[in-house]
Specification:
Length: about 625
Amino acid sequence: MEPIVRIRRSRWLSLVSTVLTLGIAFVLLMVHQYVVGRQVLLEELHTEAAIIAENSSAALVFDDARSGKEIIAAIRHTPRIVAAALYRANGMLLAAESSGTRSFPSNLSGVDGEPAAGSVGVPDTTSFGASGGLLREDIHFNGAMIGTLVLEVDFTSLYRRLLEYAAGVVGIAVVALALAYRLTRRLRRRTARAEERLEHFALYDQVTGLPNRRLFEDELRKVVDHVRRQAVPAALLFLDVDDFKKVNDSFGHEVGDQVLAMVAERLRSTLRAGDVVGRIGGDEFAAVLYGVGDPDYTAHVVRKLIAAISVPFPTEPTPTHIGLSVGIAMLPADGEDPAALLRHADMAMYVAKGQGKNGYQFFSESIDGKVRHDLRLEADLRLALKEHDGGLWVAYQPKVCARTRRVVGVEALARWRTEDGGFVSPAEFIPVAEHTGLISELGDWVLDRVCRDLAELRATGVAVPKVAVNVSPLQLLRGDAIVGRASRTLARYGERATHFEFELTESALTEARGARVLEALRAAGFALAIDDFGTGYSSLGYLKRFQVSTLKIDQSFISGVPGDEENAAIVRAVVQMAHALNISVVAEGVETEVQAEFLAMAGCDILQGYLLGRPMAVNELATFLREPTAAVV
Protein backbone atom coordinates (compact mmCIF):
# COMPACT_ATOMS: atom_id res chain seq x y z
CA MET A 1 0.00 0.00 0.00
CA GLU A 2 1.24 3.41 -0.83
CA PRO A 3 1.19 4.91 2.70
CA ILE A 4 3.07 1.89 4.13
CA VAL A 5 5.68 2.16 1.37
CA ARG A 6 6.07 5.86 2.14
CA ILE A 7 6.52 5.11 5.85
CA ARG A 8 9.16 2.44 5.18
CA ARG A 9 10.93 4.69 2.73
CA SER A 10 10.85 7.44 5.32
CA ARG A 11 12.44 5.09 7.85
CA TRP A 12 15.26 4.18 5.49
CA LEU A 13 15.83 7.81 4.56
CA SER A 14 15.91 8.69 8.24
CA LEU A 15 18.46 5.94 8.91
CA VAL A 16 20.63 6.94 5.95
CA SER A 17 20.50 10.60 6.90
CA THR A 18 21.41 9.75 10.51
CA VAL A 19 24.39 7.62 9.44
CA LEU A 20 25.50 10.28 6.96
CA THR A 21 25.24 13.00 9.59
CA LEU A 22 27.21 10.97 12.12
CA GLY A 23 29.83 10.17 9.47
CA ILE A 24 30.25 13.82 8.51
CA ALA A 25 30.46 14.78 12.19
CA PHE A 26 33.09 12.08 12.78
CA VAL A 27 35.18 13.22 9.80
CA LEU A 28 35.00 16.88 10.86
CA LEU A 29 35.95 15.90 14.42
CA MET A 30 38.96 13.90 13.20
CA VAL A 31 40.07 16.73 10.91
CA HIS A 32 39.83 19.16 13.78
CA GLN A 33 41.73 16.80 16.07
CA TYR A 34 44.43 16.33 13.40
CA VAL A 35 44.89 20.06 12.85
CA VAL A 36 45.04 20.78 16.57
CA GLY A 37 47.35 17.79 17.28
CA ARG A 38 49.71 18.69 14.44
CA GLN A 39 49.86 22.31 15.64
CA VAL A 40 50.67 21.20 19.20
CA LEU A 41 53.26 18.71 17.93
CA LEU A 42 55.04 21.32 15.83
CA GLU A 43 55.11 23.75 18.73
CA GLU A 44 56.64 21.06 20.94
CA LEU A 45 59.22 20.20 18.25
CA HIS A 46 60.27 23.83 17.88
CA THR A 47 60.62 24.07 21.66
CA GLU A 48 62.79 20.93 21.78
CA ALA A 49 64.89 22.18 18.85
CA ALA A 50 65.48 25.47 20.67
CA ILE A 51 66.59 23.61 23.82
CA ILE A 52 68.96 21.35 21.86
CA ALA A 53 70.34 24.34 19.97
CA GLU A 54 70.93 26.22 23.24
CA ASN A 55 72.74 23.24 24.73
CA SER A 56 74.86 22.80 21.58
CA SER A 57 76.19 26.37 21.43
CA ALA A 58 79.21 25.60 23.64
CA ALA A 59 80.19 22.59 21.54
CA LEU A 60 80.08 24.73 18.39
CA VAL A 61 82.07 27.59 19.95
CA PHE A 62 84.83 25.24 21.05
CA ASP A 63 84.41 22.96 17.99
CA ASP A 64 83.96 20.02 20.33
CA ALA A 65 82.54 17.19 18.20
CA ARG A 66 82.40 14.77 21.10
CA SER A 67 80.33 17.11 23.22
CA GLY A 68 78.05 17.86 20.26
CA LYS A 69 77.58 14.13 19.70
CA GLU A 70 76.57 13.61 23.31
CA ILE A 71 74.09 16.48 23.19
CA ILE A 72 72.23 15.41 20.05
CA ALA A 73 72.28 11.78 21.19
CA ALA A 74 69.55 12.80 23.64
CA ILE A 75 67.07 12.57 20.75
CA ARG A 76 66.97 8.83 21.35
CA HIS A 77 64.62 9.57 24.24
CA THR A 78 62.30 11.55 21.96
CA PRO A 79 60.35 9.27 19.57
CA ARG A 80 59.19 12.22 17.48
CA ILE A 81 62.82 13.01 16.47
CA VAL A 82 64.45 10.08 14.68
CA ALA A 83 67.73 11.73 13.53
CA ALA A 84 69.74 14.92 14.15
CA ALA A 85 72.81 16.71 12.80
CA LEU A 86 74.87 19.65 14.08
CA TYR A 87 76.67 21.82 11.54
CA ARG A 88 79.34 24.46 12.06
CA ALA A 89 78.85 27.98 10.79
CA ASN A 90 80.78 27.09 7.60
CA GLY A 91 78.30 24.28 6.92
CA MET A 92 80.62 21.42 7.86
CA LEU A 93 79.15 18.59 9.91
CA LEU A 94 80.19 18.67 13.57
CA ALA A 95 78.14 15.73 14.89
CA ALA A 96 75.25 13.54 13.75
CA GLU A 97 72.83 10.97 15.11
CA SER A 98 71.42 9.14 12.10
CA SER A 99 68.37 6.93 11.67
CA GLY A 100 68.18 3.75 9.66
CA THR A 101 66.68 5.60 6.69
CA ARG A 102 68.66 8.81 6.58
CA SER A 103 72.34 9.85 6.70
CA PHE A 104 73.20 13.51 6.79
CA PRO A 105 75.73 15.02 4.33
CA SER A 106 79.08 16.17 5.70
CA ASN A 107 78.42 19.64 4.37
CA LEU A 108 75.09 21.40 4.24
CA SER A 109 75.85 22.36 0.66
CA GLY A 110 77.76 19.21 -0.18
CA VAL A 111 80.76 19.25 -2.52
CA ASP A 112 80.47 22.01 -5.11
CA GLY A 113 76.99 22.67 -3.82
CA GLU A 114 75.77 19.07 -4.27
CA PRO A 115 74.91 16.54 -1.51
CA ALA A 116 77.50 13.95 -0.74
CA ALA A 117 77.08 10.49 -2.21
CA GLY A 118 74.78 8.26 -0.15
CA SER A 119 73.25 11.15 1.73
CA VAL A 120 70.12 13.22 1.42
CA GLY A 121 70.32 16.93 0.92
CA VAL A 122 69.13 19.30 3.61
CA PRO A 123 66.64 22.02 2.51
CA ASP A 124 67.38 25.65 3.23
CA THR A 125 64.27 25.97 5.46
CA THR A 126 62.14 23.77 7.64
CA SER A 127 60.03 21.41 5.51
CA PHE A 128 57.28 19.06 6.68
CA GLY A 129 55.21 16.53 4.79
CA ALA A 130 52.28 14.30 5.79
CA SER A 131 54.44 11.75 7.58
CA GLY A 132 57.24 14.01 8.85
CA GLY A 133 60.09 16.18 7.57
CA LEU A 134 63.20 18.16 8.46
CA LEU A 135 63.31 20.95 11.02
CA ARG A 136 66.18 23.39 10.61
CA GLU A 137 67.23 25.66 13.53
CA ASP A 138 70.03 28.21 13.26
CA ILE A 139 72.21 28.58 16.42
CA HIS A 140 73.37 32.04 17.50
CA PHE A 141 75.86 33.21 20.13
CA ASN A 142 76.36 36.86 21.03
CA GLY A 143 74.37 37.88 17.98
CA ALA A 144 76.43 35.81 15.51
CA MET A 145 75.34 32.56 13.86
CA ILE A 146 77.69 29.81 15.01
CA GLY A 147 75.97 26.75 13.52
CA THR A 148 72.81 24.94 12.38
CA LEU A 149 70.80 22.17 13.95
CA VAL A 150 68.89 19.83 11.63
CA LEU A 151 66.30 17.40 13.02
CA GLU A 152 64.46 14.63 11.17
CA VAL A 153 60.91 14.54 12.50
CA ASP A 154 58.42 11.64 12.36
CA PHE A 155 54.63 12.20 12.78
CA THR A 156 53.85 8.57 13.60
CA SER A 157 53.02 9.46 17.19
CA LEU A 158 50.47 12.01 15.95
CA TYR A 159 48.67 9.43 13.84
CA ARG A 160 48.85 6.92 16.65
CA ARG A 161 47.12 9.36 18.96
CA LEU A 162 44.54 10.12 16.26
CA LEU A 163 43.88 6.42 15.82
CA GLU A 164 43.49 5.97 19.57
CA TYR A 165 41.17 8.99 19.66
CA ALA A 166 39.09 7.62 16.77
CA ALA A 167 38.87 4.23 18.43
CA GLY A 168 37.75 5.91 21.64
CA VAL A 169 35.11 7.99 19.85
CA VAL A 170 33.79 4.96 17.96
CA GLY A 171 33.77 2.90 21.15
CA ILE A 172 31.89 5.58 23.05
CA ALA A 173 29.43 5.93 20.14
CA VAL A 174 28.86 2.18 20.00
CA VAL A 175 28.29 1.95 23.75
CA ALA A 176 26.00 5.00 23.64
CA LEU A 177 24.02 3.61 20.72
CA ALA A 178 23.70 0.24 22.42
CA LEU A 179 22.46 1.84 25.62
CA ALA A 180 20.14 4.12 23.66
CA TYR A 181 18.83 1.14 21.70
CA ARG A 182 18.04 -0.74 24.89
CA LEU A 183 16.53 2.30 26.57
CA THR A 184 14.39 3.23 23.56
CA ARG A 185 13.32 -0.28 22.58
CA ARG A 186 10.00 0.05 24.38
CA LEU A 187 9.52 3.50 22.91
CA ARG A 188 10.25 2.14 19.44
CA ARG A 189 7.71 -0.60 19.95
CA ARG A 190 5.13 1.94 21.00
CA THR A 191 6.05 4.10 18.03
CA ALA A 192 5.72 1.11 15.70
CA ARG A 193 2.28 0.32 17.12
CA ALA A 194 1.32 3.99 16.83
CA GLU A 195 2.47 4.00 13.19
CA GLU A 196 0.41 0.90 12.53
CA ARG A 197 -2.63 2.59 14.07
CA LEU A 198 -1.98 5.71 12.01
CA GLU A 199 -1.75 3.57 8.88
CA HIS A 200 -5.07 1.97 9.83
CA PHE A 201 -6.66 5.35 10.60
CA ALA A 202 -5.43 6.71 7.28
CA LEU A 203 -6.96 3.87 5.28
CA TYR A 204 -9.91 2.47 7.23
CA ASP A 205 -13.10 3.89 8.68
CA GLN A 206 -13.07 3.70 12.48
CA VAL A 207 -16.81 3.13 12.89
CA THR A 208 -17.33 0.28 10.41
CA GLY A 209 -13.82 -1.05 9.87
CA LEU A 210 -14.33 -0.75 6.11
CA PRO A 211 -11.86 0.92 3.75
CA ASN A 212 -12.38 4.68 3.80
CA ARG A 213 -12.83 6.85 0.72
CA ARG A 214 -9.08 7.19 0.17
CA LEU A 215 -8.40 3.45 0.17
CA PHE A 216 -11.58 2.69 -1.78
CA GLU A 217 -10.57 5.11 -4.53
CA ASP A 218 -7.16 3.40 -4.71
CA GLU A 219 -8.89 0.04 -5.08
CA LEU A 220 -11.23 1.48 -7.71
CA ARG A 221 -8.23 2.66 -9.74
CA LYS A 222 -6.84 -0.89 -9.63
CA VAL A 223 -10.18 -2.26 -10.80
CA VAL A 224 -10.29 0.23 -13.68
CA ASP A 225 -6.78 -0.84 -14.75
CA HIS A 226 -7.75 -4.50 -14.48
CA VAL A 227 -10.90 -3.99 -16.55
CA ARG A 228 -8.88 -2.08 -19.15
CA ARG A 229 -6.28 -4.89 -19.45
CA GLN A 230 -8.48 -7.97 -19.12
CA ALA A 231 -11.73 -6.65 -20.65
CA VAL A 232 -13.67 -8.17 -17.73
CA PRO A 233 -16.77 -6.08 -16.84
CA ALA A 234 -17.29 -4.74 -13.33
CA ALA A 235 -19.87 -2.63 -11.53
CA LEU A 236 -19.53 0.32 -9.17
CA LEU A 237 -22.31 0.73 -6.60
CA PHE A 238 -22.95 3.98 -4.75
CA LEU A 239 -25.11 3.17 -1.71
CA ASP A 240 -26.92 5.71 0.48
CA VAL A 241 -28.73 4.69 3.67
CA ASP A 242 -32.30 6.03 3.55
CA ASP A 243 -33.70 7.88 6.58
CA PHE A 244 -30.52 7.52 8.60
CA LYS A 245 -31.03 10.95 10.19
CA LYS A 246 -34.10 9.46 11.82
CA VAL A 247 -31.85 6.99 13.64
CA ASN A 248 -29.53 9.70 14.99
CA ASP A 249 -32.44 11.92 15.98
CA SER A 250 -34.37 9.14 17.72
CA PHE A 251 -31.58 7.15 19.39
CA GLY A 252 -28.50 9.38 19.35
CA HIS A 253 -25.23 9.24 17.45
CA GLU A 254 -23.83 6.34 19.48
CA VAL A 255 -26.66 4.07 18.34
CA GLY A 256 -26.32 5.58 14.87
CA ASP A 257 -22.71 4.41 14.76
CA GLN A 258 -23.80 0.94 15.87
CA VAL A 259 -26.34 0.82 13.04
CA LEU A 260 -23.66 1.89 10.54
CA ALA A 261 -21.41 -0.91 11.78
CA MET A 262 -24.26 -3.40 11.35
CA VAL A 263 -24.97 -2.03 7.86
CA ALA A 264 -21.31 -2.56 6.96
CA GLU A 265 -21.40 -6.13 8.25
CA ARG A 266 -24.51 -6.95 6.21
CA LEU A 267 -22.96 -5.48 3.09
CA ARG A 268 -19.79 -7.54 3.63
CA SER A 269 -21.69 -10.75 4.26
CA THR A 270 -23.90 -10.27 1.20
CA LEU A 271 -21.10 -9.52 -1.26
CA ARG A 272 -18.43 -11.95 -2.40
CA ALA A 273 -15.01 -12.14 -0.75
CA GLY A 274 -13.33 -10.68 -3.83
CA ASP A 275 -15.60 -7.62 -3.98
CA VAL A 276 -14.59 -4.33 -2.38
CA VAL A 277 -16.88 -2.32 -0.13
CA GLY A 278 -16.01 0.90 1.67
CA ARG A 279 -17.55 3.77 3.59
CA ILE A 280 -17.02 7.00 1.70
CA GLY A 281 -19.17 9.42 3.66
CA GLY A 282 -21.49 9.84 6.63
CA ASP A 283 -24.20 7.36 5.60
CA GLU A 284 -22.78 6.62 2.15
CA PHE A 285 -21.05 3.42 1.10
CA ALA A 286 -19.60 2.19 -2.18
CA ALA A 287 -18.82 -1.24 -3.57
CA VAL A 288 -17.04 -2.68 -6.58
CA LEU A 289 -18.25 -5.99 -8.03
CA TYR A 290 -15.66 -7.91 -10.06
CA GLY A 291 -16.60 -9.92 -13.14
CA VAL A 292 -20.35 -9.24 -12.91
CA GLY A 293 -20.97 -10.34 -16.48
CA ASP A 294 -24.05 -8.25 -17.28
CA PRO A 295 -26.38 -5.67 -15.69
CA ASP A 296 -28.96 -8.35 -14.81
CA TYR A 297 -26.55 -10.04 -12.41
CA THR A 298 -25.62 -6.66 -10.94
CA ALA A 299 -29.31 -5.87 -10.37
CA HIS A 300 -29.72 -9.27 -8.69
CA VAL A 301 -26.86 -8.48 -6.27
CA VAL A 302 -28.25 -5.01 -5.56
CA ARG A 303 -31.68 -6.42 -4.76
CA LYS A 304 -30.03 -8.80 -2.28
CA LEU A 305 -28.26 -5.83 -0.65
CA ILE A 306 -31.50 -3.85 -0.39
CA ALA A 307 -33.27 -6.88 1.10
CA ALA A 308 -30.47 -7.37 3.65
CA ILE A 309 -30.65 -3.76 4.81
CA SER A 310 -34.46 -3.75 4.95
CA VAL A 311 -34.40 -6.30 7.80
CA PRO A 312 -34.93 -4.32 11.06
CA PHE A 313 -31.81 -3.58 13.08
CA PRO A 314 -31.87 -4.70 16.74
CA THR A 315 -31.61 -1.31 18.43
CA GLU A 316 -33.02 -0.48 21.85
CA PRO A 317 -35.69 0.27 22.87
CA THR A 318 -37.24 -0.29 19.42
CA PRO A 319 -35.85 -1.87 16.24
CA THR A 320 -34.62 0.47 13.50
CA HIS A 321 -36.05 0.36 9.99
CA ILE A 322 -33.98 1.93 7.22
CA GLY A 323 -33.59 1.46 3.49
CA LEU A 324 -30.97 1.62 0.80
CA SER A 325 -30.84 3.70 -2.39
CA VAL A 326 -28.26 2.44 -4.89
CA GLY A 327 -26.76 4.03 -7.97
CA ILE A 328 -24.96 1.75 -10.43
CA ALA A 329 -22.21 2.55 -12.95
CA MET A 330 -20.98 -0.23 -15.22
CA LEU A 331 -17.32 -0.61 -16.19
CA PRO A 332 -16.18 0.09 -18.85
CA ALA A 333 -19.50 1.12 -20.43
CA ASP A 334 -20.00 4.17 -18.18
CA GLY A 335 -16.41 5.35 -18.19
CA GLU A 336 -12.84 4.44 -17.27
CA ASP A 337 -11.99 7.38 -15.04
CA PRO A 338 -12.43 6.56 -11.30
CA ALA A 339 -13.61 10.06 -10.40
CA ALA A 340 -16.12 10.11 -13.28
CA LEU A 341 -17.41 6.65 -12.36
CA LEU A 342 -18.03 7.70 -8.76
CA ARG A 343 -19.79 10.81 -10.01
CA HIS A 344 -21.96 8.78 -12.39
CA ALA A 345 -22.91 6.26 -9.69
CA ASP A 346 -23.70 9.14 -7.32
CA MET A 347 -25.95 10.71 -9.97
CA ALA A 348 -27.81 7.44 -10.41
CA MET A 349 -28.22 7.09 -6.63
CA TYR A 350 -29.64 10.60 -6.45
CA VAL A 351 -32.26 9.64 -9.05
CA ALA A 352 -33.06 6.37 -7.21
CA LYS A 353 -33.62 8.29 -3.98
CA GLY A 354 -35.86 10.78 -5.79
CA GLN A 355 -37.98 7.91 -7.11
CA GLY A 356 -39.10 6.86 -3.65
CA LYS A 357 -35.94 5.49 -1.98
CA ASN A 358 -35.11 1.85 -1.19
CA GLY A 359 -34.42 1.11 -4.84
CA TYR A 360 -31.70 1.23 -7.45
CA GLN A 361 -30.97 2.99 -10.71
CA PHE A 362 -28.41 2.38 -13.46
CA PHE A 363 -26.53 5.39 -14.77
CA SER A 364 -27.52 6.63 -18.22
CA GLU A 365 -26.94 9.63 -20.43
CA SER A 366 -30.41 10.92 -19.57
CA ILE A 367 -29.50 10.90 -15.88
CA ASP A 368 -26.32 12.77 -16.68
CA GLY A 369 -28.38 15.32 -18.60
CA LYS A 370 -30.84 15.74 -15.72
CA VAL A 371 -28.08 16.22 -13.15
CA ARG A 372 -26.33 18.72 -15.38
CA HIS A 373 -29.64 20.51 -15.88
CA ASP A 374 -30.13 20.65 -12.10
CA LEU A 375 -26.62 22.03 -11.67
CA ARG A 376 -27.33 24.79 -14.18
CA LEU A 377 -30.65 25.42 -12.46
CA GLU A 378 -28.90 25.70 -9.10
CA ALA A 379 -26.37 28.19 -10.48
CA ASP A 380 -29.13 30.28 -12.08
CA LEU A 381 -31.19 30.18 -8.89
CA ARG A 382 -28.27 31.38 -6.80
CA LEU A 383 -27.80 34.24 -9.23
CA ALA A 384 -31.53 35.06 -9.23
CA LEU A 385 -31.58 35.23 -5.42
CA LYS A 386 -28.66 37.66 -5.38
CA GLU A 387 -29.79 39.98 -8.16
CA HIS A 388 -32.49 42.61 -7.65
CA ASP A 389 -34.34 41.57 -10.79
CA GLY A 390 -33.28 37.95 -11.21
CA GLY A 391 -36.65 36.80 -12.51
CA LEU A 392 -38.09 35.61 -9.19
CA TRP A 393 -41.52 36.96 -8.24
CA VAL A 394 -44.49 36.04 -6.06
CA ALA A 395 -47.91 35.03 -7.34
CA TYR A 396 -50.98 35.27 -5.11
CA GLN A 397 -53.92 32.88 -5.27
CA PRO A 398 -57.10 34.04 -3.55
CA LYS A 399 -58.83 32.10 -0.80
CA VAL A 400 -62.58 32.71 -0.51
CA CYS A 401 -65.21 31.97 2.07
CA ALA A 402 -67.16 28.86 1.03
CA ARG A 403 -70.51 30.46 1.91
CA THR A 404 -70.10 34.14 0.88
CA ARG A 405 -67.45 33.72 -1.83
CA ARG A 406 -65.63 36.75 -0.45
CA VAL A 407 -61.82 36.88 -0.24
CA VAL A 408 -60.51 35.94 3.19
CA GLY A 409 -56.83 35.69 2.28
CA VAL A 410 -54.24 34.73 -0.31
CA GLU A 411 -51.53 32.13 -0.65
CA ALA A 412 -48.09 33.41 -1.72
CA LEU A 413 -46.46 31.18 -4.33
CA ALA A 414 -42.87 31.49 -5.59
CA ARG A 415 -42.54 31.88 -9.36
CA TRP A 416 -39.52 32.24 -11.64
CA ARG A 417 -39.36 33.87 -15.05
CA THR A 418 -36.18 33.34 -17.12
CA GLU A 419 -34.38 36.00 -19.15
CA ASP A 420 -35.89 34.73 -22.40
CA GLY A 421 -39.42 35.19 -21.04
CA GLY A 422 -40.02 31.53 -20.23
CA PHE A 423 -41.06 30.12 -16.86
CA VAL A 424 -39.37 27.56 -14.61
CA SER A 425 -41.94 25.38 -12.90
CA PRO A 426 -41.95 25.36 -9.08
CA ALA A 427 -42.01 21.58 -9.31
CA GLU A 428 -38.63 21.93 -11.00
CA PHE A 429 -36.77 24.55 -8.98
CA ILE A 430 -38.21 23.94 -5.48
CA PRO A 431 -36.70 20.39 -5.25
CA VAL A 432 -33.37 21.78 -6.46
CA ALA A 433 -33.54 24.48 -3.78
CA GLU A 434 -34.26 21.84 -1.13
CA HIS A 435 -31.53 19.51 -2.32
CA THR A 436 -28.87 22.24 -2.44
CA GLY A 437 -29.83 24.01 0.79
CA LEU A 438 -31.06 27.14 -1.00
CA ILE A 439 -34.58 26.63 0.32
CA SER A 440 -33.93 28.76 3.42
CA GLU A 441 -32.60 31.62 1.33
CA LEU A 442 -35.53 31.26 -1.06
CA GLY A 443 -38.01 31.25 1.84
CA ASP A 444 -36.48 34.43 3.28
CA TRP A 445 -36.66 36.05 -0.16
CA VAL A 446 -40.34 35.15 -0.58
CA LEU A 447 -41.30 36.57 2.83
CA ASP A 448 -39.41 39.79 2.12
CA ARG A 449 -41.07 40.09 -1.30
CA VAL A 450 -44.52 39.49 0.20
CA CYS A 451 -43.96 42.23 2.79
CA ARG A 452 -42.93 44.68 0.07
CA ASP A 453 -45.96 43.76 -2.07
CA LEU A 454 -48.29 44.25 0.90
CA ALA A 455 -46.78 47.68 1.51
CA GLU A 456 -47.40 48.61 -2.15
CA LEU A 457 -51.01 47.38 -1.93
CA ARG A 458 -51.66 49.39 1.22
CA ALA A 459 -50.22 52.47 -0.48
CA THR A 460 -52.93 52.10 -3.16
CA GLY A 461 -55.69 51.56 -0.63
CA VAL A 462 -55.95 47.78 -1.05
CA ALA A 463 -55.89 45.54 2.04
CA VAL A 464 -55.19 41.82 2.18
CA PRO A 465 -56.70 40.13 5.23
CA LYS A 466 -54.21 37.26 5.60
CA VAL A 467 -51.27 35.81 3.68
CA ALA A 468 -50.26 32.14 3.71
CA VAL A 469 -46.58 31.43 3.06
CA ASN A 470 -45.24 27.92 2.38
CA VAL A 471 -42.42 26.63 4.59
CA SER A 472 -40.34 23.61 3.62
CA PRO A 473 -39.62 20.98 6.33
CA LEU A 474 -35.94 21.46 5.52
CA GLN A 475 -36.20 25.07 6.70
CA LEU A 476 -37.42 23.83 10.07
CA LEU A 477 -34.53 21.37 10.35
CA ARG A 478 -32.06 24.27 10.20
CA GLY A 479 -33.21 25.45 13.63
CA ASP A 480 -35.36 28.17 15.11
CA ALA A 481 -33.29 30.91 13.43
CA ILE A 482 -36.11 31.03 10.86
CA VAL A 483 -38.37 32.53 13.54
CA GLY A 484 -35.96 35.35 14.28
CA ARG A 485 -35.40 36.11 10.58
CA ALA A 486 -39.15 36.14 9.88
CA SER A 487 -39.85 38.43 12.86
CA ARG A 488 -37.12 40.86 11.82
CA THR A 489 -38.44 40.96 8.24
CA LEU A 490 -41.97 41.73 9.41
CA ALA A 491 -40.71 44.40 11.84
CA ARG A 492 -38.75 46.07 9.03
CA TYR A 493 -41.97 46.54 7.01
CA GLY A 494 -44.28 47.18 9.93
CA GLU A 495 -46.22 43.93 9.49
CA ARG A 496 -47.82 41.87 12.26
CA ALA A 497 -47.25 38.15 12.78
CA THR A 498 -51.00 37.60 13.11
CA HIS A 499 -51.33 38.75 9.50
CA PHE A 500 -49.42 35.66 8.33
CA GLU A 501 -50.01 31.94 8.23
CA PHE A 502 -47.22 29.41 7.57
CA GLU A 503 -48.27 26.36 5.55
CA LEU A 504 -46.43 23.12 6.36
CA THR A 505 -46.66 19.54 5.19
CA GLU A 506 -47.71 16.82 7.63
CA SER A 507 -44.15 15.45 7.73
CA ALA A 508 -43.02 18.68 9.43
CA LEU A 509 -45.17 17.77 12.46
CA THR A 510 -43.55 14.37 12.91
CA GLU A 511 -39.96 15.61 12.52
CA ALA A 512 -38.41 15.75 15.99
CA ARG A 513 -35.98 18.54 15.20
CA GLY A 514 -38.74 20.69 13.72
CA ALA A 515 -40.97 20.54 16.81
CA ARG A 516 -39.04 23.26 18.64
CA VAL A 517 -39.28 25.54 15.59
CA LEU A 518 -43.04 25.04 15.26
CA GLU A 519 -43.54 25.89 18.92
CA ALA A 520 -41.36 28.99 18.45
CA LEU A 521 -43.46 30.05 15.45
CA ARG A 522 -46.66 29.72 17.47
CA ALA A 523 -45.09 31.66 20.35
CA ALA A 524 -44.14 34.46 17.91
CA GLY A 525 -47.80 34.80 16.86
CA PHE A 526 -47.78 33.02 13.48
CA ALA A 527 -50.70 30.76 12.58
CA LEU A 528 -49.92 27.24 11.36
CA ALA A 529 -51.70 25.48 8.50
CA ILE A 530 -51.24 21.87 7.40
CA ASP A 531 -51.02 21.60 3.61
CA ASP A 532 -52.04 18.50 1.62
CA PHE A 533 -53.72 17.01 4.68
CA GLY A 534 -54.57 13.32 4.32
CA THR A 535 -51.43 12.31 2.42
CA GLY A 536 -49.08 12.15 5.42
CA TYR A 537 -48.98 10.34 8.74
CA SER A 538 -49.71 13.02 11.30
CA SER A 539 -51.95 12.28 14.27
CA LEU A 540 -54.57 14.30 16.10
CA GLY A 541 -52.06 14.65 18.94
CA TYR A 542 -49.75 16.66 16.72
CA LEU A 543 -52.58 18.94 15.62
CA LYS A 544 -53.44 19.68 19.23
CA ARG A 545 -49.83 20.02 20.41
CA PHE A 546 -48.89 22.66 17.85
CA GLN A 547 -52.28 24.43 17.93
CA VAL A 548 -52.79 24.10 14.18
CA SER A 549 -55.33 26.67 13.00
CA THR A 550 -56.06 25.39 9.48
CA LEU A 551 -56.18 22.08 7.56
CA LYS A 552 -55.97 22.10 3.77
CA ILE A 553 -57.55 19.01 2.23
CA ASP A 554 -55.34 17.70 -0.55
CA GLN A 555 -56.75 18.31 -4.02
CA SER A 556 -56.52 14.59 -4.83
CA PHE A 557 -59.57 14.14 -2.57
CA ILE A 558 -61.38 17.12 -4.13
CA SER A 559 -61.06 16.19 -7.80
CA GLY A 560 -63.61 13.36 -7.68
CA VAL A 561 -66.30 14.88 -5.50
CA PRO A 562 -69.21 14.71 -5.26
CA GLY A 563 -69.37 11.73 -7.63
CA ASP A 564 -66.58 9.79 -5.86
CA GLU A 565 -68.36 8.62 -2.72
CA GLU A 566 -65.16 7.51 -0.94
CA ASN A 567 -63.50 10.92 -1.48
CA ALA A 568 -66.71 12.64 -0.42
CA ALA A 569 -66.76 10.60 2.77
CA ILE A 570 -63.12 11.50 3.48
CA VAL A 571 -63.88 15.19 2.99
CA ARG A 572 -66.86 15.07 5.38
CA ALA A 573 -64.81 13.14 7.97
CA VAL A 574 -61.92 15.61 7.83
CA VAL A 575 -64.28 18.57 8.16
CA GLN A 576 -66.07 17.07 11.15
CA MET A 577 -62.81 16.10 12.85
CA ALA A 578 -61.25 19.55 12.25
CA HIS A 579 -64.31 21.44 13.51
CA ALA A 580 -64.35 19.27 16.62
CA LEU A 581 -60.80 20.51 17.28
CA ASN A 582 -61.78 24.10 16.44
CA ILE A 583 -59.67 24.00 13.25
CA SER A 584 -60.84 25.63 10.01
CA VAL A 585 -60.77 23.66 6.76
CA VAL A 586 -59.54 24.78 3.34
CA ALA A 587 -60.36 22.79 0.21
CA GLU A 588 -57.74 23.37 -2.49
CA GLY A 589 -57.94 22.51 -6.16
CA VAL A 590 -61.58 23.58 -6.58
CA GLU A 591 -62.22 23.81 -10.32
CA THR A 592 -65.98 23.39 -10.80
CA GLU A 593 -69.09 24.96 -9.34
CA VAL A 594 -70.43 21.53 -8.43
CA GLN A 595 -67.33 20.90 -6.28
CA ALA A 596 -67.70 24.30 -4.63
CA GLU A 597 -71.35 23.69 -3.74
CA PHE A 598 -70.62 20.23 -2.33
CA LEU A 599 -67.73 21.52 -0.24
CA ALA A 600 -69.84 24.36 1.15
CA MET A 601 -72.59 21.91 2.10
CA ALA A 602 -69.99 19.55 3.63
CA GLY A 603 -68.92 22.37 5.94
CA CYS A 604 -65.61 23.49 4.37
CA ASP A 605 -64.76 26.99 5.56
CA ILE A 606 -62.52 28.22 2.73
CA LEU A 607 -62.19 27.35 -0.95
CA GLN A 608 -59.14 27.74 -3.16
CA GLY A 609 -58.72 26.81 -6.82
CA TYR A 610 -58.89 27.96 -10.43
CA LEU A 611 -62.68 28.36 -10.20
CA LEU A 612 -62.21 31.14 -7.66
CA GLY A 613 -58.98 32.70 -8.85
CA ARG A 614 -55.74 31.68 -10.45
CA PRO A 615 -52.32 32.65 -9.04
CA MET A 616 -51.69 36.25 -10.13
CA ALA A 617 -49.07 38.98 -9.92
CA VAL A 618 -49.44 41.68 -7.28
CA ASN A 619 -50.82 44.28 -9.73
CA GLU A 620 -53.44 41.77 -10.93
CA LEU A 621 -54.27 41.00 -7.31
CA ALA A 622 -54.90 44.69 -6.67
CA THR A 623 -57.39 44.79 -9.57
CA PHE A 624 -59.02 41.54 -8.42
CA LEU A 625 -59.52 42.82 -4.87
CA ARG A 626 -61.09 46.07 -6.08
CA GLU A 627 -63.92 44.19 -7.82
CA PRO A 628 -67.20 44.31 -5.84
CA THR A 629 -67.62 40.54 -5.99
CA ALA A 630 -64.25 40.08 -4.27
CA ALA A 631 -65.03 42.17 -1.22
CA VAL A 632 -62.50 41.41 1.50
CA VAL A 633 -63.72 40.02 4.80
